[in-house]
Design goal:
Radius of gyration: 18 Å
Largest sheet: 8 strands, parallel
Number of helices: 10
Helix content: 40-55%
Structural class: alpha/beta
Bound molecules: zinc ion
Distance between the termini: 23 Å
Number of strands: 8
Strand content: 5-15%
Shape: globular
Strand order of the largest sheet: 1-2-3-4-5-6-7-8
Length: about 280
């Protein structure tokens, strides 16, 4: 093989500038061979969101952190921004459901602006709650999700979805929602995805598979069209709640050493797939 360094992407991490290790955590990732990360915006409990101006302030925190990672490490960081699905429930308490839904949609329009301005790579993580909710919240969440997909289509960017655990049937439903607004399913990333790698399992969506040993073994047995993620939470109060930020480079290097993943496979997963998925990825 060539001496060229293999790129290693963690497609979904959260960094917490208030109580986490943020840049230091990324340095751990870097030490183990990680080269690229996508930082997913998530609400900060220190900055409760009640208005569109709060969303702007909150997105700016994530963008500033991404810029710090780019300045202080050799890891290439991108960010996704958008209203986290559960925010609808908090906003409803303050504003009622109708206005809450409008604010979520305005927050999506704002996320589209951040992508157009080059501050963010894609819209995410957005979608619908992963826990049971009332029919009215579910219906509103689906309207917001459709608006999110339309915004991605109009912006020409990818979208990262947070939803209930996806089965092939749910992937089909999501692909159909994208089709209805003219968004290419290949621009739709299913975050926290089971190894649904076959076309008949993912219906054209891009699976971002949680990098557990079991899931990646299953994924590799089916093909190479997937990305890897930890959903790292950067919350020292909850160690082990999700995978550590070092997992993707560790797993990738172990698989290469065992011969279960060739360097070409790794290039495909960590370089070709994100380039094909996210316009503007580098
Ligand atoms: Zn997440």
């Amino acid at each position: 093989m060539t001496a060229q360094k293999i790129p290693i992407l963690d497609n979904h991490v959260h960094l917490d500038p208030f109580k986490g290790r943020h840049v230091d955590a990324v340095k751990d990732f870097e030490k183990l061979g990680g080269t690229h990360i996508i930082i997913s915006h998530m609400p900060y409990e220190e900055r409760p969101v009640k208005s569109i101006d709060d969303f702007r302030e909150s997105y700016d925190i994530t963008i500033a952190l991404k810029e710090r990672v780019n300045a202080e490490t050799s890891v290439r960081a991108h960010a996704t921004v958008g209203p986290y699905p559960a925010e609808l429930i908090a906003l409803k308490k303050t504003h009622g459901l109708q206005r809450a839904k409008e604010i979520m949609m305005e927050a999506l329009d704002l996320a589209g602006d951040y992508v157009r301005e080059g501050k963010a790579l894609a819209i995410g993580e957005v979608g619908r709650p992963h826990f049971p909710v009332s029919p009215e919240i579910w219906e509103a969440s689906n309207e917001i999700l459709s608006h999110a997909m339309r915004t991605a289509k109009e912006t020409g960017c990818a979208i990262v979805l947070h939803t209930e655990s996806a089965t092939p049937e749910i992937m089909k439903e999501l692909a159909e929602m994208a089709r209805k607004v003219g968004l290419d399913a290949a621009r739709v990333v299913k975050h926290y995805c089971a190894p649904l790698i076959l076309p008949e399992e993912n219906h054209g969506l891009m699976p971002s598979v949680l990098a557990s040993k079991e899931a990646i073994d299953v994924a590799l047995g089916k093909g190479l069209r997937f990305m890897m993620e930890t959903d790292f939470l950067d919350d020292p109060r909850r160690p082990g709640a999700v995978l550590n930020i070092t997992t993707v480079p560790k797993r990738t290097n172990q698989l290469i050493q065992k011969g279960a993943m060739t360097p070409d496979d790794a290039f495909h997963i960590h370089n070709d797939n994100p380039r094909r998925t996210y316009p503007g990825y580098d």
